[in-house]
């Protein structure tokens, strides 16, 4: 009974922190189902540019990672989250302003781009700081659970945000999309200000580039496994539109709920079996889901493929992340998480323009085939890394030793 209560208390502690990631990614979800169609159909720009607008957020997040990691390690995760939520508020305000000038496409597009820049910088702080804050409270042994719950919060935000954004814009107009992001961020700021933070870790701190070198192999596997998600996020609404199908937002919701279900059902799988074995099984399931998307003949099969992809992709980040966090000392934990997450940003950043270019030349189905191949490539790389590592590798660093 005591163990169960302790586990429940730890989970509640984690949830009270990763809720900030939920708020940040709620802003992503609210805009995700609306912006591609807004740029392509309302403003009259190409599918390639629509994909670039979505990907800009991830490119900015990638560029800000080193600064975010240093801020988290030196000032503490609470300060970083407050800065991040302020950035989300600015992003929402800029989105609301963009909706006021739809009759002037260049101005509206410019405001949307600035909004994506603000959101990208904000998320680089919020996601890494939430993980660092959670590990700081639970200790290194809670790394897998903290990363898993943080992911649940992120994709719950996307899953709830996508239909919410569609409903808001349909009922109250496009400006409501930005205003809802602004209000959510302001609520998050009030909540963060009332919480007690954790102090920065004391000890050896590695330079960001040194940390980056250590986590690169696992990061590359993560990047390959992320292309499928990035493609679904950026282009599923346009893919549905190309077939004349309605309710693309529910495909994103199916992905998000499957993602969450996998993390809830297999919350302790990483602790029990290890990061690399869980990552390999997850990548295999993801690859099968992407292959189904490639071959899907109708809307129902497409939704099933997206759902299976979300279920497989769910544990890829925490499973590989547990292995990556072992490779650096505790005082560099913020930088380690930032360096590892950089590969997620990189994959999502290049996904929009790359897949948009392929779609323009080869059509939509070809990108799902490419993502299937990439997922199998990630599986092969993870298997190679697992075979090269010893069973006790990284245990000392998990305890805070380099």
From TrEMBL:
Transmembrane segments: 12-35, 47-68, 80-101, 113-135, 147-168, 174-198, 219-241, 247-266, 278-297, 303-325, 337-360, 366-385
Entry keyword set: Cell inner membrane, Cell membrane, Membrane, Transmembrane, Transmembrane helix, Transport
Chief place where the protein resides: membrane
Signal sequence residues: none
Protein topology in the membrane: Multi-pass membrane protein
Ranges where the Major facilitator superfamily (MFS) profile domain occurs: 181-402
Annotated compartments: Cell inner membrane; Cell membrane
Keyword Transmembrane attributed: yes
InterPro entries documented for this protein: MFS, MFS_dom, MFS_trans_sf, MFS_Transporters, MFS_YhhS-like
UniProt-listed Gene3D superfamilies: MFS general substrate transporter like domains
HAMAP family (UniProt xref): MFS_YhhS
Family label: Belongs to the major facilitator superfamily. YhhS family.
UniProt protein name: Uncharacterized MFS-type transporter ACFOJE_09375
UniProt organism field: Azotobacter bryophylli
């Amino acid at each position: 009974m005591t163990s169960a209560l302790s586990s429940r208390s730890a989970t509640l502690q984690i949830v009270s922190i990763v809720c900030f990631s939920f708020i940040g990614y709620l802003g992503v979800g609210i805009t995700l189902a609306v912006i591609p169609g807004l740029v392509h159909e309302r403003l009259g720009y190409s599918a390639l540019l629509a994909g670039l607008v979505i990907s800009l957020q991830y490119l900015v997040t990638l560029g800000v990672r080193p600064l975010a990691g240093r801020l988290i390690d030196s000032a503490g995760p609470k300060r970083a989250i407050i800065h991040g939520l302020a950035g989300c508020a600015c992003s929402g305000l800029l989105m609301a302003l963009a909706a006021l000038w739809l009759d002037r496409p260049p101005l509206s597009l410019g405001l949307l781009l600035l909004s994506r820049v603000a959101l990208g910088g904000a998320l680089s702080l919020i996601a890494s700081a939430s993980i660092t804050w959670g590990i700081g409270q639970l200790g290194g042994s809670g790394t897998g659970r903290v990363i898993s719950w943080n992911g649940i919060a992120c994709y719950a935000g996307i899953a709830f945000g996508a239909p919410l954004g569609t409903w808001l814009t349909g009922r109250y107009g496009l400006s409501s999309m930005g205003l809802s992001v602004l209000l959510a961020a302001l609520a998050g700021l009030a909540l963060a200000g009332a919480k007690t933070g954790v102090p920065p870790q004391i000890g050896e701190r590695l330079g960001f580039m040194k940390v980056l070198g250590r986590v690169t192999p696992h990061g590359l596997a993560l990047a390959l496994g992320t292309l499928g998600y990035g493609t679904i996020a950026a282009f599923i609404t346009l893919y549905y539109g190309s077939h004349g199908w309605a309710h693309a937002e529910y495909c994103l919701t199916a992905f998000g709920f499957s993602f969450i279900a996998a993390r809830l059902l297999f919350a302790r799988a990483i602790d029990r079996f290890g990061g690399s074995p869980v990552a390999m099984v997850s990548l295999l399931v993801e690859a099968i889901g992407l292959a189904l998307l490639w071959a899907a003949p109708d809307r129902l099969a497409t939704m099933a493929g997206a759902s299976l992809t979300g279920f497989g992709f769910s544990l890829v980040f925490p499973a590989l992340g547990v292995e990556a966090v072992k490779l650096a000392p505790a005082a560099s934990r913020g930088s380690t998480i930032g360096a590892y997450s950089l590969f997620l940003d990189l994959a999502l950043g290049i996904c929009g323009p790359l897949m948009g270019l392929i779609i323009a030349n080869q059509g939509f189905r070809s990108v799902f085939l490419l993502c299937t191949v990439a997922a199998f490539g990630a599986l092969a790389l993870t298997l190679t890394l697992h075979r090269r590592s010893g069973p006790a590798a990284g245990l000392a660093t998990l305890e805070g030793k380099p």
